[in-house]
Write a structure and sequence with these properties.
The chain is α+β, with helices and mostly antiparallel strands. The protein contains 8 helices and 40 strands. A hairpin with a 4-residue loop joins strand 23 and strand 24 (about 315). The longest helix is centred in the middle third of the chain and has 18 residues, at about 400-415. The protein is globular and about 110 Å long. The model is unreliable at about 1-25, about 540-545, about 550-575 and about 635-640 (pLDDT under 50).
């Protein structure tokens, strides 16, 4: 059953209250370290071969970590042209096992096995019985094992991580694609057992009200005792030169109770934005009693006083329009093969962003770990977060749709308190049934009004959109990537479509490979595509130019490797010589050297050559210096004459 309690009281400064904010280390067990391990490409262990449950796993691995760190999997001989190459590919179930003594002091508590980050499906076994499985991608996996663990005894805990695609989703999204971070198998970040009393705070969300200088705290309290619990909740808000305490009585009669508490913070509270990222911590302590048995549970979260709204053309933060200047984070971390889960790594990334004068980061078709939110909160960076959703993912498929429905709610619950999380979009360039996209967007707006929501980037708009990321509006192009780089652009005329517009793929340009970087790829992926490019430019005779010339002076790579050159020189005059070059490319049939004038695009290219030659013949001031033809049959060889 569920019950709802609301309290609306002014918070008082209680100087006599004794507050204990100590961590509950004794109720957590760190499980990082060595685990028994076994691969299972054929998925036998979960199949019919029950005898496999009777033996211990034969190999070992250290967690947190991924299989690539230990060269587990198929050693790839390939050189992928369209991405970095994963050196050791493993895609399938992998098993991890450890015998753990459950503390006797945990008797009567609820016990959870917590994985901060994994992909994709985690299944937990106690003994030989599968007791829990979770398939989130964007948030931690928190398995409740209370029913199957016996405090004071040793338990054999085995879990399976299956990084195969659990649903028929698009294969390019950046949460688990080989194209950016690899589709790794393992566990990252914290791995631990957690014990809590049977009356505990399951969720705590903070909703700022900057006009009234207050917050509304929405809590979900679980009572697993089957009896009424009575007690109190103590709140403690702290920040720079700020401290506020409040205490309210509480009665929990049902298994799930929703509590809302409003706290007035006073005139000394400060707003959060990119220039002044003021943060506050809310500590909550629930103490209760059930039939003479006392229980206690603590929960903490960070928040910022900020509100975001959609203006006609701008995003409004705390009543003021903001101009987003940002980049796209595609989960490209070749040193590790996965996005970092530690604060220091994300602080480095976001400080670089800020140093370049930017204030915004879009997470393209993936959601980062908690450390990214923490550092964005600290540094004042506005985040746009997405689910692992792209392309066909809105096409009808109820299993896939239910996964996205769960994933959406999980993201909002796990990261909703972070003030940096101001924008949410379901995914990138989605196609399919947009009534489903509208359902997701409308549901998100109803669940949590602390940010703005959008259905999809660069595709069909839906009714519930509060902003839109797009190449163009009904009034013109929004993206800025055509032609040479320039800064004298004005996109005001493309606005006025009823909601804020964020330009999609601005500055998305080709860059030239730096072959000196090849040796730097020492992690689970290698730049074997760079090796191919180096071989191609080498056989075209332009290796020296590509290695030494400034990027701005380099010819287009495509032109350099595909087009034969027609060079036309200007005759000398007063010891000055000017020249210009015309180029065209011609196509030959496989294994044939005959030039066919009507083959493929040859008529157009030959016309260019004839026109250039004729123009020179008719002008006595010019002469043809040479005609150079370079032909390529493969990256391994050339014919030149």
């Amino acid at each position: 059953m569920k019950h709802k309690i609301k309290h609306y009281m002014a918070a008082l400064l209680l100087t006599s209250m004794v507050w204990s904010g100590h961590a509950q280390e004794k109720n957590e067990m760190d499980l990082s370290g060595e685990w028994a391990f076994q691969t299972d490409v054929m998925d036998f262990r979960r199949g019919s071969l029950d005898v496999r449950y009777c033996h211990r796993l034969q190999e070992s691995i250290v967690l947190p970590g991924i299989t690539d760190d230990y060269k587990i999997g198929y050693k790839s001989p390939y050189r992928h042209l369209d991405r970095l190459t994963r050196v050791y590919e493993y895609m399938g179930p992998a098993w991890y096992q450890r015998e753990i003594e459950i503390p006797a002091a945990w008797k009567g508590k609820r016990i959870f096995l917590y994985f901060e980050r994994t992909h994709w499906l985690s299944s937990v076994y106690v003994g030989k019985e599968e007791v829990s499985k979770i398939d989130y991608i964007s948030i931690p996996h928190n398995h409740e094992l209370t029913q199957w663990l016996h405090p004071g005894k040793k338990e054999l805990i085995t879990f399976c991580i299956d990084n195969r695609y659990q649903y028929d989703t698009h294969k390019w999204d950046h949460a688990h694609s080989e194209f950016t971070q690899i589709n790794w198998n393992g566990v990252l970040g914290e791995i631990k057992l957690v014990a809590v009393d049977p009356v505990y705070v399951d969720d705590m969300q903070v909703y700022p009200d900057i006009k009234n200088k207050s917050i509304k705290v929405k809590m979900t309290v679980r009572n697993c005792t089957e009896h009424t619990a009575s007690g109190k909740i103590s709140f403690h808000v702290t920040g720079k030169d700020y401290r506020l305490q409040k205490e309210v009585p509480v009665t929990v009669t049902d298994s799930i109770t929703y509590i809302e508490e409003e706290m007035f913070l006073g005139k000394d509270i400060h707003l959060w934005n990119e220039f002044h990222p003021n943060l506050y911590t809310l500590d909550c302590k629930l103490t209760s009693s059930v039939e003479g048995q006392s229980y206690a549970h603590e929960k903490s979260t960070t928040f910022g006083m900020r509100e975001v709204e959609a203006g006609e053309d701008h995003i409004i933060l705390n009543g003021e329009p903001i101009h987003l200047r940002g980049t796209v984070e595609n989960a490209v971390f070749p040193k590790t093969g996965y996005a970092p889960v530690d604060d220091a790594s994300w602080e480095r990334v976001l400080r670089i962003l800020k140093e370049y004068g930017m204030n915004h980061m879009r997470f393209h078709s993936w959601c980062p770990p908690a450390a990214a939110f923490r550092m964005a909160d600290k540094l004042g960076v506005y985040l746009e977060v997405e689910m692992p959703m792209w392309g066909k993912d809105a096409q009808p498929d109820e299993k896939r749709w239910n996964f996205f429905r769960r994933e959406l709610r999980g993201i909002l619950k796990e990261y909703g308190n972070h003030p940096s999380f101001i924008l949410y979009c379901n995914g990138n360039e989605i196609t399919g049934d947009f009534s489903f996209i509208e359902e997701l967007t409308a549901t998100a707006r109803q669940l949590d009004n602390r940010r703005l929501y959008s259905g999809s980037t660069a595709r069909t708009r839906v009714k519930s959109d509060q902003f839109y990321i797009t190449h163009q509006t009904t009034k013109g192009h929004m993206a800025i990537y055509e032609g040479r780089p320039y800064t004298n652009w004005d996109k005001n005329k493309e606005l006025g479509v009823g909601l804020p517009i964020i330009s999609h793929e601005s500055g998305q340009r080709c860059i030239y490979p730096n072959f000196e970087e090849i040796k730097n790829f020492t992690g689970p992926v290698q730049a074997r595509n760079f090796e191919i490019f180096r071989e191609l430019q080498g056989c075209a005779g332009c290796g020296e130019a590509l290695g030494n010339a400034p990027v701005a002076e380099l010819p287009l790579f495509k032109e350099e490797v595909e087009r034969p050159n027609l060079q036309i020189m200007v005759a000398q005059a007063e010891e000055k010589r000017r020249s210009f070059t015309r180029s065209a490319y011609l196509n030959f049939k496989v294994n044939q050297s005959a030039l066919l004038a009507d083959y493929m695009n040859n008529p157009v290219e030959l016309a260019k050559i004839y026109s250039s030659i004729d123009s020179i013949r008719e002008d006595n001031n010019y002469r043809i210096a040479r005609i150079e033809i370079v032909g390529y049959s493969s990256p391994e060889g050339i014919d030149a004459s």
